[in-house]
UniProtKB/TrEMBL annotation, chains A, B:
The gene is argJ. Catalyzes two activities which are involved in the cyclic version of arginine biosynthesis: the synthesis of N-acetylglutamate from glutamate and acetyl-CoA as the acetyl donor, and of ornithine by transacetylation between N(2)-acetylornithine and glutamate. This is Arginine biosynthesis bifunctional protein ArgJ. Keywords: Acyltransferase, Amino-acid biosynthesis, Arginine biosynthesis, Autocatalytic cleavage, Cytoplasm, Multifunctional enzyme, Transferase. The active site is at T201. One of its GO terms (biological process) is ornithine biosynthetic process. It comes from Edaphobacter paludis. Substrate binds at T156, K182, T201, E284, N407, T412. Its EC number is 2.3.1.35, 2.3.1.1.
């Protein structure tokens, strides 16, 4: 058995078809309704945002998965309208699109999994989605072009589509994973089990032809999400619609067994890690991607808490935008993270450049060298807390005037 | 007895002198060493940042107040260097300036209360502060001009000085409070009792001629700070040096008694409230000051938690910068605040304009009218959680490209 990332057509998971059309929901007139179908249905695992405020498709999607015991025949995504804070009309509009999709794609209405992304609070144009369904059906197919159509249609402020794939070879049979994701703002996913209300702007759809049950898939998905999508932040705003859906068609004929759990989990981690990275890399206004490697923590949760304080600090993020090695801001943010530590034991490096140790600026601090590291589009900042062996890698980005420009002019 | 805010010279508290000089610490060459002295000493109450990382002057100041039992003869402030993350050398430099100040101002070295604000991690130029002391002494005086000199010297990226005063008339005798404060970035004070380490960029000095003990003053200061400085945020970055110091000279001859506690507390609240507002109003790059009035909460702490999530949301803050009534972002931020609530019971208004109720956009939503409210420099957003009677008022601001510009070019 081996994991590998392939880009050839053969590595798309079997048992799925994809398609998309322009339904006039995006003001730009671009592709905005995407569909993925599993003609023989697929077993699903899902994680939704932990936001208290949830979009209608999350409420409906959760209800549908409960009703079917985790079976999905069609994924119906629209971009351009989040269908969040739209009241009972939003719920009804969502159900209406699922009923229409069930008719079009010949399944039961609660086998349709709905998703929306876009502006919050604007009435949901269900009629546009419904009217687009016959056209979507005509676009369905299982080639890479079809899959890319799907990946493009789910984008909002993304500048490029995000896909990733991996293959596990099981005694000569390929088990494929292919995923598509979208960002690009309101990105600080806090995904949890499907309880409580969600409105999300990170949408990720993972398809595999492995044969596995819904519960088994959930056990695989949770840890993969925890170390990928739950370890990224663009702006610290956790959306009301964040969704990660994993569908397993079983079309490879390979059943999930204890023996292939680890290689499959590794492949899933690869795909999730790649998509998470791509989402930050294409974040709104991003000019630098920064990996925060927090080490020497007492627990992984504490390492993450420190990483998040830094990742959400406007002062750290603006300094990164100008490659300013102002490490004092990193230390200050760690200091207010809520994690107790002794500053005298902290060690900070930018790339391989030492900047802080023994409670003060490193004697080896070389401002020009640290600045040079930060001129790269991507680099790592390592902060060792000096009080344990737990760690985390958290991917984030700088805050630029371009981010402000993009978000200061959204709905008006 | 009555409270009033006066601007005439007579309302400065007696028993203090102020002065300041240019010591060459600020790159701009502006005033950067400020001193306030209480020739007969004053009783002190203090609150420091709760940041785990503390600047040297906080460590030293805390030690001095413990040693003297809360007695202060001189306040010594420098701007341009935070003396934070400067190791043992920073502590020694701070002590050295206190010893020199004690000699200059004829007091004991631990009656000197030191403060620093500026960049973190750059070696502290103690020698510049020491060399400046004789010149500072020559500037000391008790007129409004002297007090303003002090208020100007403590500024960093502030564009204007921040002062406030109030008078309590006690049977014909005036008890005065005068305060000076500085912002303008790394502003999200989380002040607590003087325990644990702090580096802060909000510095506030409050002077009164009331006669009161250190413990009594602490009891008055804590609630005043809780509803003023602990209820503002510019960028959500809690500094390592934040300090609020209240000094009581006793020179009015009026002793704090139960009878005057309430009017004095009211006057102190006025001064703290005014300074807190001025600090946000002069925040880095601020073009709009927004008061978040969170009502209908189960507890004041929950109201504050919701306010902070909104105040720290880049998406809310960028929308404010363009007067965009994108209320969905307010709701989303409240949703991830960690406070549980039912979105269907939430009511949101921008100024008096209803925007969200009963789980969806208000039928009375008038985008143009809401936009018009947001074009004002200052307005209130009211969010009622519909589940209790606790509330808070939290003052914050927008996030502009100018904030990014200011902070993307600080140390280099």
């Amino acid at each position: 058995m081996s994991n590998e990332q392939k880009t050839n057509a053969q590595s798309l998971p079997r048992g799925f078809q994809w398609g998309a059309v322009k339904a006039g929901i995006k003001a730009s007139g671009k592709l905005d309704v995407a569909v993925a179908i599993a003609p023989k249905t697929a077993n699903a695992a899902v994680m939704f945002t932990k936001n208290q405020v949830v979009a209608a498709p999350i409420t409906v999607g959760r209800r549908h998965l409960r009703a079917t015991g985790g079976r999905v025949a069609a994924v119906l995504v629209n971009a351009g309208n989040a269908n969040c804070a739209t009241g009972q009309a939003g719920i009804e509009g969502c159900v209406q699109t699922c009923v229409a999709a069930a008719e079009t794609f010949h399944c039961i209405f609660d086998e349709v999994f709905p998703s929306s992304t876009g502006i919050i609070g604007v009435p949901f144009p269900a009629e546009k989605v419904v009217a687009a369904l016959p056209a979507v059906q005509a676009t369905l197919g299982d080639t890479p072009d079809h899959a890319e159509l799907f990946a493009q249609a789910i984008m909002t402020t993304d500048t490029r589509m995000k896909t990733a794939r991996a293959v596990v070879d099981v005694d000569g049979t390929e088990v494929n994973i292919w995923g598509a994701g979208k960002g690009a703002g309101m990105i600080h996913p806090q995904l949890g089990a499907p309880v409580g209300p969600p409105h999300a702007t990170m949408l990720v759809y993972l398809f595999t032809d492995l044969a596995a049950g819904s519960e088994e898939l959930n056990k695989l998905l949770a840890p993969a999400v925890e170390r990928s999508f739950n370890c990224i932040s663009i702006d610290g705003d956790t959306s009301t619609n964040d969704t990660v859906l994993l569908l397993a068609s079983g079309a490879s004929g390979v059943q999930l067994t204890e023996r292939i759990t680890e290689p499959f989990a590794n492949a899933l981690n690869l795909v999730c890690g790649s998509l998470a990275h791509q989402i930050v890399d294409d974040g709104e206004g991003v000019s630098h991607v920064v990996t925060l490697h927090i080490t020497g923590a007492r627990t992984e949760a504490e390492a993450k808490q420190v990483a998040k304080a830094i990742a959400h600090s406007p002062l750290c993020k603006t300094a990164w935008s100008s490659a300013d090695p102002n490490w004092g801001r990193l230390l200050a943010a760690a200091g207010y993270s809520g994690v107790e530590f002794d500053p005298a034991k902290v060690n900070i490096r930018i790339g391989v450049q030492p900047v802080f140790e023994l409670g003060m600026r490193s004697p080896l601090f070389d401002e020009a060298a640290a600045h040079a590291v930060m001129l790269e589009r991507e680099y790592t900042i390592t902060l060792d807390l000096g009080q344990g062996s737990a760690e985390c890698q958290f991917i984030t980005c700088d805050l630029t005037a371009e981010y402000v420009r993009i978000n200061a002019d959204y709905s008006t």
